[in-house]
Specification:
Layout (H helix, E strand, L loop, with lengths): L1 H52 L12 H8 L4 E2 L2 E2 L6 E7 L4 H19 L4 E7 L7 H12 L4 H10 L11 H11 L4 H10 L1 H13 L7 E5 L7 E4 L4 H11 L1
Parallel strand pairs: 3-4
Antiparallel strand pairs: 1-2, 2-4, 3-5, 5-6
Helix pairs in contact: 2-5, 4-5, 4-7, 4-8, 5-6
Amino acid sequence: MSNKRERERRQEERRRSETEADQSDRRSRLLQLGAGAVFLAIVAVAVLIVATSSGGSGGDAKLEEEGAVNRLLAGVPQEKMVLGDPRAPVELIEFGDLQCSVCKYYSESILPSIVETRVEKGEVKIDFRNFTIIDQDSTPAGAATLAAGEQGRGWSYLELFYRNQGEEHSGYVNDEFLEAIAKGAGVKNLAKWNQDRKKLVPEVEATTAEAKRLGFSGTPSFAIKGPHSSGTEVLGTPESLSALEEAIEKAS
């Protein structure tokens, strides 16, 4: 009897040992599978980082807000860097730097209301002039905008640039980025645009000098001219939309 119990005890121990061995083997296989999955995830992230890094500094990136720019400017005349009816009685002159983050803010949050309520009605035209104060990259950016203006896409270029603006002094303004903006803005003849932007650097320098003569030291800075203004009146940087609207009313 005791021999029988002993055999049963040994059989039970073998089954328990085999079960534990099976469980240990399964755990080992699961750990291997998990490690493999983690490794594949790490590889995928690394590939994504490399692909992103090798994509250049902006030119290959998908541009943002092309639709918003097209909607804002739809049906509004563009003549070089003047937006609106050239016969509009009030001329609002903006001196800006395409790399300026405050200019970007005005472009997105202040000026759209002026465009929709004043420019579209033929009451105001806006003349953009370069005032390069950030760094050396502001000059080619400004010239590229003027070159787009030679093909009637200056404000489209300006607005799209602002909406894809990078960090100051980061080096994002290169030929690849500038050409991507030109394509997105609807510039048709890129060969002509490339030729024109090299020729128009002196104009960027001239309007920068003009801004300094007017006493401006920052961007964006505004001036205004209308039927009831004393020639070209310096506004500086209006603190709000209402301040800009008030200046337009006085000049009208």
